[in-house]
Amino acid sequence: MEIDAALQSFLEHVRHKSGSAHTVTSYSIDLRQFVSYLNKQKVASLNDVDATRIRAYLRELFNLGYSKASISRKLSSMRRFFAYLRQLGVTQADVGRGIHGPSMVRNIPRALSPEAVEKMFEAAECGEFPERDVAMLELLYSCGLRVSELVGLKWDGVDLEERWLIVMGKGDKERRVPFGDCAKKALSALRNRDASRDALGQYVFTSRGKDRHLTERTAHRVITSMAARCGLGNVTPHTLRHSCATHLLEKGAPIKFVQDFLGHESMATTQIYLTISASWMKESYVKHHPRAAIPDLAE
Prior knowledge:
This protein has a 3-stranded antiparallel β-sheet with strand order 1-2-3. The chain contains 13 helices and 3 strands. Helix 2 packs across helix 4, helix 5 runs antiparallel to helix 6 (130-142) and helix 6 (130-142) packs across helix 10. It is mainly alpha-helical. Helix content is 57%, strand content 4%. It is globular and about 60 Å long.
């Protein structure tokens, strides 16, 4: 398979799996830049691309002034591209698998307070589309879904009786996510509304007809608008996912559970949430360390 044909096949695969034009565009930009580099190096076959050549490309990006975050993102795109080619049998080895990107200083994600989250639920209930907006909040906050998982969720992946979701996470990995009474109530209300309008389609959140799912961009706009009505700024769907993880850990949930619940591949990703709440850390220290608090000597 020629390089350009392989790239087009991969982008069609991403489009089919994610349904997000933004995601496809991001992969396209990163990989077309890499293909341009290969053309300059007179590389005509994908089997001629090895780890050494990829590392040389990353060094060139660094010398051109690209940030570590940008280089890491481009490497991630290449890893997924070559993993796809290996699955198809186009290449003999997954050449991107063992390559490490530049070391990154991870930013601590922002989490809302429980009170701020409740304000957003109040705003959702008073909005133009209350059933949709409340259900979105429940799945982003109560279930910790990524926005891509939210918009890609189908009704056949929702078990209202047993209260399970089946979502497609990163790397096309399927996982089961439990949900509670509040989320069940919100999902039931949304399903009943759409059924009464004869608008019930395969996707939980639809756009421009019942057979198309809501775009990630629209979901992002709904959440930021909802937050703005509460006087909250810089709130995205991912902020609600961060808040979910933080509040679970603050209430004593095991970190292994939170890792599996959120679909984190690495425990290190989950551990970042342990640094978010200083007040929780202080309370935990005072509660558990024998030398943290002065004993009450009063009779």
